[in-house]
Amino acid sequence: MEESELLGQRREKIRALRDSGVELFPNDFRAEHTSLEIIEQYGDWAAEALQDLDTVFSCAGRIMAMRNFGRAAFAHLQDRKGRLQVYLRKDLLGEESFELTKRLDVGDFLGVRGRLFRTKTGELTIEASFMQLLAKSYRPLPEKWHGLTDVETRYRQRYLDLIVNAQVKEIFYKRNEIIQAMKTFLLQRDFLEVETPMMQHIPGGATARPFKTHHNTLNRDLYLRVAPELYLKRLVVGGLERVFELNRNFRNEGVSSQHNPEFTMLEFYQSYSTYEDLMALTEEMIGAVAEGILGSHTITYQGVELDLTPPWPRVTLKEALVQFGGVDGTVLSDKTAASRLVRKLGLDLLGDESHGELLVKVFEEAVEPKLIQPTFVTEYPVEVSPLARRKGDDPKVTERFELFIMGREIANGFSELNDPEDQGRRFREQAAKKGGEEEEVAFIDEDFLNALEYGMPPTAGEGIGIDRLVMIMTDSPSIRDVIFFPQMREKS
Fold first, then answer.
1. Is the distance from CB of 306 to CB of 373 less than 8 angstroms?
2. Which of 34, 73, 358, 447 has the fewest CB atoms within 10 Å, i.e. is most exposed?
3. pTM, full prediction
4. Distance in Å from the first CA to the final CA of the chain
């Protein structure tokens, strides 16, 4: 049947209901039980035991299936916890009330009260002694209510996706559990959860293209934050030695199965610690979350078995280039050789890249995709780590790590640079590298440098991409599967 015909039929039913005095959107029914509560408590009761149960249950939900047999009808109600069958009998409800079943549709919300029994097929069912239409659905559910499979429609109309695909709802429940478990892990270790500005006068803390807006009253441009880092470190200067924030970041960059311009990041800072301490904390936290929520340190992602049991391998960036990328040792010490390899790999070159920047380009192309099992890569060049402390025995690299799982960066952490003079030089070098344009120079956060001059204790900090971690822990192939409302290109 064409959609226009279905819509026409529904509107006819709506007119008939209104003409008969039925309220289409009442708000006086109270659901006192969920489907899960009933199933968990009475799911294994025998039919005979249910007959002796006098409890009257009150449930409400969306009708997901409806079969009308003239003098009786069966419906499946779906609430936030699952589905439960309802039996509607004309002789028990009364003729006037039962007449309503002829004008009910899949998608409508229904409230019922009644006792439990088992059908001849053994299904736990509420035998309704009262029923009430709670909200009329003007539109039919997609694909004749058997599911929504079109990916574009699923992401653009997530509400439909949640209604008809139970596994999607489960992903987002799991996402919530993962986030709460990570928060609990940090709170138990004396971290303070904080909130810092989403709109910042300087988009600092990460190298990324920001979103720009304008505040009319202040008459100044503001930027949606690319990271909360510089504000969190101000709090460390202020004496909050362990802080974390789990919230949104915004980067005006590409959209793909791995990237959304608005994404969730857990960022945390721990004083009197190093990047090595945070690597240990990270593998402990992620391993504990997997064990607690998924029941095992071993999980499967897109057919690949991943072992999250600590400790995880740690390799320097240069070691990874040789071990995983097959890079010749001369590339590690010779800038010209590194430049030739970058060109051989077909990567873009501006011509003014440092040796360290060239090595990172090679790493991203030749090594990252091969880091399947959880692996920490350490000692990134200073040129690509403007906020990280130099390594004592090799000042060309920093005390920094990135965590990779399934060839994707999941976390980035380092021992923080707390020398205000060194930090100021690096900020200015970074701005000059971008051309020294007025807007780029304005990105130097002088107030943050001022804060550092008051003294920041030795500290380590880290950011973990929540969306990518949830993808792995829920076996979701796209970042859009774990974000309720991902950004989408306009329909052509």
1. yes
2. 447
3. 0.92
4. 26
Q: How far apart are CA 141 and CA 455, in angstroms?
A: 60
Is CATH 3.20.20.140 what the domain over 163-325+367-481 is classified as, yes or no? no
| Helix and strand totals (H; E) in the chain | 18, 20
Domain ranges of the chain: 3-140, 163-325+367-481
Superfamily of domain 3-140: Nucleic acid-binding proteins (2.40.50.140)
Task: Give the tens place of pLDDT for each residue, 248-299.
Answer: 999 998 888 889 999 999 999 999 999 999 999 999 999 999 999 999 999 9
Phi/psi of residue 391, each to 5°?
-80, 130
Q: Which amino acid is at 471?
A: M
CA–CA gap between residue 194 and residue 191 (Å, rounded)? 9
Q: At 277, list the tokens.
A: 């301490």
Check if the beta carbon of residue 403 is closer than 8 Å to that of residue 472.
Answer: no
Q: What is the DSSP string of 274-303?
A: -HHHHHHHHHHHHHHHIIIIISSSEEEETT
User: What size, in residues, is the chain?
Assistant: 492
Name which residue leads in pLDDT, 206 or 222. Answer: 222
